[in-house]
Amino acid sequence: xxxxxxxxxxxxxxxxxxxxxxxxxxxxxxxxxxxxxxxxxxxxxxxxxxxxxxxxxxxxxxxxxxxxxxxxxxxxxxxxxxxxxxxxxxxxxxxxxxxxxxxxxxxxxxxxxxxxxxxxxxxxxxxxxxxxxxxxxxxxxxxxxxxxxxxxxxxxxxxxxxxxx
Length: 165
Known about the structure:
Layout: H1 2-40, H2 46-53, H3 59-69, H4 76-81, H5 87-94, E1 98-108, E2 115-127, E3 130-142, E4 148-153, H6 155-164
Antiparallel strand pairs: 1-2, 2-3, 3-4
C-alpha cells in the first residue's frame, strides 16, 4: 500500500512539472504572437514614419525590421517578401492614418501537430480627428523554437487595408 502511495505522489509531481513546462511554453508562444501583433497594429510612430519617408528599400527600414521582428520570426526575409510585416503600418503611413490595437485575443488551436494559433485584433484607425474600428483575424504558426513561421490573415484584414487607402 505504501508503494502505491509513493508511486502516486511521484506520478503527480512529474505530471505537475510537465504541465507547468507546457503552460510556460504556451505563455511564451502567446507573448511572441502578442508582441508581433502589437508591432503590426500600433503606429506608425515618429521613428518609423521618418524611416518610411526614406523609402521601403532603405537600410534603415531593414534595421528597423530586424530590431522589431528579428527575435519574433523564424525567417525575416521570407516574412517581408510575403507581406507579413509592416503592411498595415506602411499603408497607414502613406495615407496619413494612425493605428492603435485595442484588444488582442489569441487562442491555441487544439489537436494540431504544430503550434497553431487563431488571433483577433480590434484596431482603431484615425485620421483628421476621425476614428473608426476594424477587426483583423487570422492564424499564426510557430516553429519548434517558438518563432513565427507563417501568418495568414483572413479576408477582414484586407477590409482594413481598403479602409486605409
